[in-house]
Amino acid sequence: MTPLYDNHGRPLTYLRLAVTDRCNLRCFYCMPEDGIRYLPKKDLLTFEEIERLITLLASLGISKIRLTGGEPFVRHDLMDLMQRITEIPGVKDLHLTTNGVLTAPHVGALKKMGIASVNLSLDTLDRERFRVITRRDEFEPVMHTLNLLLEHDIAVKINAVVMEGKNIDDIVPLIELTRNQRVEVRFIEEMPFNGEGNHYPTLHWTYTRILDYIKSHYPNLVKLPDPQHSTAYTYTIPGHLGNLGIIAAFSRTFCGTCSRLRVTAQGTLKTCLYDDGALDLRALLRGNHSDDSIKQQLHTAFQHRAKDGFEAEQHRKNHLPVSESMSTIGG
């Protein structure tokens, strides 16, 4: 198969696809307290459309699939869709991002399915801070999910958004999870995808400040080689079983090696997290378009990809700043 590249010579191998924009939490950094206006069910891609789209993209060279939301398990029969995806020719790895609230009953089936990894959103290990950040009291189900994932030896990455005045005291406790567990804890710069825009005039907790804070507590921190196309700067602490990462999601330092595409729950192709849509795939899938026609339009979109997140943001329609919810975009 001919490798798939964008107009900047970057290979495209990774698709993040949102199966829903709905979520059972109301995280401070993701959406307003009263939620967002959810899409009517008819506006979501059907499972059949998702399966067809992934089949087309896999035929072009996309081999890694991550299902996101919203919260994926809010959508009924998700496990059936995941099983079908694993059977698509060309799909090598299926991954999942979840908040963990509804995930525990499915952990055994995820293991049996051969899930490559699970990213668990968990910004704090304190129940009260969890309630404040998520605006829901669901800490215990999430921790139960984490423990089950570890018991089933499923590769787990904990995603923690670092927020001024919210969870700075959780950085060290989260790192301590790596001492005796083979888990990767990733600290992420807060982004303006909360349905409201930036919470702060300037971002205080940049990736460099996060790193300095960690080094002040763990001066023996060791830099690891970053995996190819990784968004995280990866580190370990001698004697710890797991490791940690820092993702410069707002500073956007990793764009030069980005290999990912996004598809929102309503079927909008995003060739960059910061753009406002490159192609209406739902219209193509529901129109009288052949597979070859859709693949040609995908190729065209890939050849007009922004070089980085800053350029993508500048080219947004009417130059409006980023303000949509991450739940709408697909995490």
Tags for this entry?
331 residues; alpha/beta; TIM Barrel; twelve-stranded mixed sheet; metal-binding
What is the count of helical runs? 11
Number of strands: 12
Estimate what percentage of residues fall within beta strands.
15-25%
Run of helices and strands: EHEHEHEHHEHEHEEEEEEHHHH
CATH hierarchy class name = Alpha Beta
**Count of folded domains:** 1
- CA-to-CA gap between the ends? 29 Å
Question: Stretches where pLDDT falls below 50 for ≥5 residues?
Answer: none
User: What is the 3D form?
Assistant: globular
Would you identify the CATH architecture? Answer: Alpha-Beta Barrel
Helix content: 25-40%
Task: State the fourth-level CATH superfamily.
Answer: Aldolase class I
Classify the secondary structure makeup into a structural class.
alpha/beta
Mean pLDDT: 91
The biggest sheet amounts to: 12 strands, mixed
Spatial extent as radius of gyration: 19 Å
CATH topology: TIM Barrel
Pathway: Cofactor biosynthesis; molybdopterin biosynthesis
EC number: 4.1.99.22
Binding site for S-adenosyl-L-methionine: 29, 70, 121, 191
Keywords: 4Fe-4S, GTP-binding, Iron, Iron-sulfur, Lyase, Metal-binding, Molybdenum cofactor biosynthesis, Nucleotide-binding, S-adenosyl-L-methionine
Describe what you observe in this structure.
The chain is α/β, with parallel strands linked by helices and 331 residues long. It has one domain (14-329): Aldolase class I (TIM Barrel, Alpha-Beta Barrel), CATH 3.20.20.70. 30% of the residues lie in helices and 17% in strands. It has 11 helices and 12 strands. Strands 7-8-9-6-5-4-3-2-1-10-11-12 form a 12-stranded mixed sheet. The relative contact order is 0.16. The model has no long low-confidence stretch (mean pLDDT 91).
